[in-house]
Amino acid sequence: MGKQYNDQDIDQLLRKLPKSTDTRNKSDIYNKLIQDKRLQQKPRKHIKQKYIAAITTIAAIFIMSLVTYKLIATTQQEDSVGDMQQATESMDQSTNKYSIESNEQLPTEADESSVTMEAKESESTSSLVSAEELSGYVPFPLGVTINALAIPITWLIPKEKVMEDFGTVDVTNFQLYERYAAEFNEGTYGFDEYQPYDGKLMEQNDSIVHTLPADHKYDMGTASETVYFQTMNYTFPNYDNLATQMENGEAAEFSHIGSVENTKLLHGMYQRGIFLYVMEDGTRFFFPEGEVFESVADAINSPNGMRQKINDLVQSVLPASIDFDITESESTVQVTFANQEEVNALDRQTLTTMMDGLIYTASNFGKSITFKNLPFEEWAGFRVGEEIPPVAGYNKIRQ
């Protein structure tokens, strides 16, 4: 390997080098340099200039692009702001025009109330079955049950379906029951499995004859016996009598009420107050419950009437905050509300429950009903102030 030197060694070597001297005259040296062609000035070559020009052009284009972009962005921003200002001014002008030139169109407080209530009505989920609604359907009444309560429902079957099955739409309750009772899926709507009835049913003039098996389930308790007779009323509202018998032809035996051969059916005239059952999913069903009363007014205002709480499952249809007067005749009931604002303050569901409940109550006494002093003009297709006839069914369900 070669010898390694440090800075000190290199310095000593440089000091030992001989010193150079030049004894020439300065003028002679200068003259020689002038005459030397290698040192004479030559014209500059422009090789590098073209590159410089190209670089300069690119830089200029880049700078112009930046400037142009900035100008465009600024212009768009100004246009956007201008559009927003123009839109705002247009809205202001529309508002001013509406306020100044169209004062006749401005809604009054009464109009706002009417609009609000009409909107509630149009969105309502009324369960009423009106005669007008039956134009395309055949109503199939059916009594169902849940938690030892009997609930009347009306299954609306399209007339096309009934025509296909019977060749006519003029069919009886019993024919509808025989054909469709087994098809109705009670569990779908949250009800207990109950229909069709055990045993054999037949139609005999104005009576329904039910032959019960020896081990029938309808006398397991007073509640089951009550549900049986109530659902029979709900299922066969167009018949006068229910005849119950055992398979040997003798009168049917019930554990708690004894032997029962004939029971009068009520034709929908239950003469009870109307209450509400709410399913777990929020679906509401109306049904007659409680004592039998002589009048609609008694069913509503009696201490044991519709304002009472029967149990945790059964709810009143009447809001505690609403007051009204009842005028009643043999065929009609008039309900006059004390305060429109209180009615208007009700939410849609509470309002629907109250209105349907009152109409059902009048119906199960066989009476029409008229409403007065309401903040809207129509309810479930009926004009407020006009007589609403007894409904064609309870708790509509479409097939």
What does this structure look like?
- With 399 residues, this protein is an alpha+beta fold.
- Among the domains are: 116 residues, no CATH class; 133 residues, no CATH class.
- It is built from ten helices and 17 strands.
- Strands 3-4-5-8 form a four-stranded mixed sheet, with no helix packed on it. Strands 1-2-17 form a three-stranded mixed sheet.
- The chain is elongated, with a radius of gyration of 48 Å.
- The N and C termini lie far apart (108 Å).
- About 11% of the residues have low confidence.
What would a concise description of this structure say?
The protein is of the alpha+beta class and 399 residues long. Helices cover 37% and strands 21% of the residues.
Key structural traits:
membrane; 399 residues; 17 strands; transmembrane; alpha+beta; 21% strand; transmembrane helix; 4-stranded mixed sheet; 3-stranded mixed sheet
Q: Helical stretch count?
A: 10
Find the structural class using helix and strand composition.
alpha+beta
Calculate the terminal CA-CA distance, rounded to whole Å: 108 Å
What fraction of the residues are assigned to beta strands by DSSP? 15-25%
Secondary structure: helix percent: 25-40%
Mean of residue pLDDT? 81
Describe the secondary-structure layout.
Elements lengths: L6 H10 L9 H10 L11 H55 L7 H15 L13 E10 L2 E10 H8 L6 H8 L19 E5 L2 E6 L9 H14 L5 E6 L5 E3 L3 E3 L1 E3 L8 E6 L5 E6 L6 H6 L12 E3 L7 E5 L3 E6 L2 H5 L3 H16 L4 E5 L5 E2 L2 E2 L12 E3 L1
Parallel strand pairs: 2-17, 4-5, 13-14
Antiparallel strand pairs: 1-2, 3-4, 5-8, 6-7, 9-10, 9-11, 12-13, 15-16
